[in-house]
């Protein structure tokens, strides 16, 4: 049973429900091909039906872990740290990012933007979902917009989201893995007709790495 003290620590962002942490190659978006240490935080209520890490949704199944331990582990492996989930902004990211910054690390986040943007970030990958749209300010700070394409209607959603981000934000369309053979040709055609967009692929899955 989780004690009240631990719950208070989680609420303050001093402990986080850590699902997993691992060193690998960033497979998606602008930084694909870069060695990076991933911190996957549990907890998400966005509920994408095609999510490939549904086991991250229930924060209670992942042990509250002190951010000092998380940072110590991360600093051993890489200068590039990716915080992902679940939905990491479910929690206050301020304490974790300050501690990572104190180690001189570059910190990226992958987020749906469904909650208030907290923390200090060198790179923000915003991947909005229809189920729970982003909180406004994250649109202004996003470095890349990554829209997952499951069907043709997602291209309409992508344009709606692109209209909200800042002018320097890089725009990506990424095929949802389970329907990639079906939607990738559609994405390619769309990007060729609308070259402000780029294609993002889950290259780590093609490489068979985490």
From TrEMBL:
Taxonomic lineage from the root: Bacteria, Pseudomonadati, Bacteroidota, Flavobacteriia, Flavobacteriales
Alphabetized HAMAP family for the sequence: QueE
Pathway in which the depicted protein is active: Purine metabolism; 7-cyano-7-deazaguanine biosynthesis
Residues given in the record as substrate binding sites: 25-27, 40, 84, 210
Name of the featured protein: 7-carboxy-7-deazaguanine synthase
Residues involved in S-adenosyl-L-methionine binding: 50-52, 86, 127-129
Subunit structure, as described in the record: Homodimer.
Function: Catalyzes the complex heterocyclic radical-mediated conversion of 6-carboxy-5,6,7,8-tetrahydropterin (CPH4) to 7-carboxy-7-deazaguanine (CDG), a step common to the biosynthetic pathways of all 7-deazapurine-containing compounds.
UniProt record similarity statement: Belongs to the radical SAM superfamily. 7-carboxy-7-deazaguanine synthase family.
One Pfam family hit: Radical_SAM
Gene encoding the protein: queE
Bound cofactor: record note: Binds 1 S-adenosyl-L-methionine per subunit.
Catalyzed chemical reaction(s): 6-carboxy-5,6,7,8-tetrahydropterin + H(+) = 7-carboxy-7-carbaguanine + NH4(+)
